[in-house]
Structures are given as structure tokens and as C-alpha cells.
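Review form for a predicted model. The reviewer records the input and the model, then writes brief findings.
Reviewer: anonymous (R2)
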Amino acid sequence: MKKIVLSFGPPKDLEAKRTAEIKSLSHLERLERLIAIIEVSYALKTGKVIQFKKR
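Model under review:
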């Protein structure tokens, strides 16, 4: 995997970089990313809320 670098800049530039990155991916890589997003979304939706005791 590539080293992750945080990007700062105008939203248009960041969106253009993100779009170019996604277009460079193969169909399988796009599908893997979509499935990962769906799994995280499902985990957040069905997860139990942890309640902390107030002192």
C-alpha cells in the first residue's frame, strides 16, 4: 500500500485529486472499497451503545 499523506488545500483541488485516484483504480479495487464502506456503515448502525456510569 502507498504511504498515507494528509492533504491540505482548496476543496476543488482535493476533490480533483480524489477523483483522479478513484479513476485510476481497477473495478475490483473500487468494489473492495465499496464493500469496506458498507461493512463499516452496517457495524455503526447495528452496534450497541456503550453507556458510561456518571460519578
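Findings: The chain has one domain: 1-55.
Further findings: The two ends are 45 Å apart (CA to CA).
Recommendation: see findings above.
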